[in-house]
Amino acid sequence: MHLQLRRKAEMSEKSEAHLLDDFGGLIKLYSDGSVVRGDESSLFSLLTEPNNYNHVEYKDVVLDEEVGLWVRLYLPPETTSKALVVMYYHGGGFILFSPATPFIHHKCQMWAATLGVLIASVNYRMAPEHRLPCAYDDSIKALHWLQLQALAAEGAEPWLHSHADFSRVFIAGESAGGNIAHHVGVWARKAKAEMEIKGLILLYPFFGCEERTASEKENSPEFSLEMSDTMWRLALPVGSNRDHPFSNLLIEGAAASALALPAILFVIAGHDILRDQQLRYCGLLEKCGKQIRVHVCEEEEHGFLLVKMEEPSSVEALRVISDFIK
After folding, report:
1. Rounded to whole angstroms, what are the CA distances from 7 to 14, 18, 32, 78, 276?
2. DSSP characters for 106-129?
3. Selection from 26, 95, 97 nearest residue 233 by Cα
4. Using CA atoms, how far apart are residues 148 and 152, in angstroms rounded to an integer?
5. Which of 313, 201, 210, 225 shows the shortest CA–CA distance to 274?
6. What is the distance between the alpha carbons of residues 316 and 301, in angstroms, rounded to a whole number?
């Protein structure tokens, strides 16, 4: 009898849970902490699959099965010498996608073939089930794993042992992944990681603040202010706002941390609502004496490198990235 009453109470409590946040039906967060995820494939219609890159070999390597941390490795085709390594963090506002998402997977194939680099694409935990700093913790753990591979005389992952040039390692990330790449780069310098990071490639990184910028007020159907705000609400620690150090890099001390970073390339989309915050951060770094490279694609929207992989602006951005890593 008591068990039956307790079950009824639990069912009643669950039925009273109300919707707190809804990201386009793809992610629904309820007041009892439960999360219901929809089908991400509805977004894949945006994809224009690049041609002639399916021959690029790839495989998945599990780093921590318990938390779901793994990397997808991509080999550059016809490699005759050891290749530069790019550790890549995907975008999705900390709440969506994985290395297996079609447009992310195809982009890494394209980069491996076009740039001739070995890519390690990281699967990190998603918010709101796992809010920040979980994505940072997983991403740092993946970089630490790569460092152990570089130091291992025996037992290293075979592809890395045979094909990776660990003297040339870059960290790259797109949108939320660009945010992650920045924070991982700062950690690597503070922790004095034994493996030298040659540079950061930050593709329209997902930065934010409470103050509304002019570019945010322009809004965009491709990546709207409402989408950005919802992503931050779902990703940041409970009770935080967009002036948290995870999102707002203009706070006191952030630029000082970045001064110790290696070379940085920013790729910025001219019609991105995040443009002003990205450019503000670039300006702060330059004011503090940090030399950076900034490439602005004036006519493009946030995420263009994923959905317009072979358009002229993407080809030009890839040329800039190629020059940067040489």
Report:
1. 11, 19, 16, 61, 52
2. HHHHHHHHHH--EEEEEE-PPTTT
3. 95
4. 6
5. 225
6. 15
3-state secondary structure labels for all residues of 164-224: EEEEEEEEEEECHHHHHHHHHHHHHHHCCCCCCEEEEEEECCCCCCCCCCHHHHHCCCCCC
User: CA-CA distance, 309 to 313, in Å (whole number)?
Assistant: 9
Are the CB atoms for 275 and 300 separated by under 8 Å? no
What pTM value is reported for the model?
0.93
Residue 252 structure tokens: 């006191």
The letter for the amino acid at 185 is: G
Torsion angle, alpha carbons of 178, 183, 188, 191, to 10: -170
pLDDT digits (tens, 9 = 90+) for 63-76: 999 999 999 999 99
Asked whether 181 and 173 are in contact (CB, 8 A), the reply is yes
Confidence of residue 48 (pLDDT cuts 50, 70, 90): low
Q: Mean of the pLDDT values across residues 85-108?
A: 96
- What residues are labeled active site? 175, 272, 302
Query: Distance between CA atoms of 262 and 232, rounded to whole angstroms?
Result: 27
- Give the CB-side neighbour count of residue 255, counting CA atoms within 13 A: 17
- Confidence class of residue 80 from pLDDT cuts 50, 70 and 90? confident
Total residues belonging to the chain: 326
pLDDT at position 221, please? 80
Q: Return the structure tokens found at 218.
A: 């322009």
The token duo for 270 is 């001219």
Task: Give 7's contacts (C-beta < 8 A, 6+ positions apart).
Answer: none
Token couple for 130: 């796992």
Looking at residue 102, the DSSP 8-state letter turns out to be H
Alpha helices in the chain, H assignment, sequence order:
2-15, 102-115, 134-151, 158-163, 176-190, 214-218, 225-235, 254-259, 275-287, 304-307, 312-325
Residue 103: both structure tokens together = 């447009």
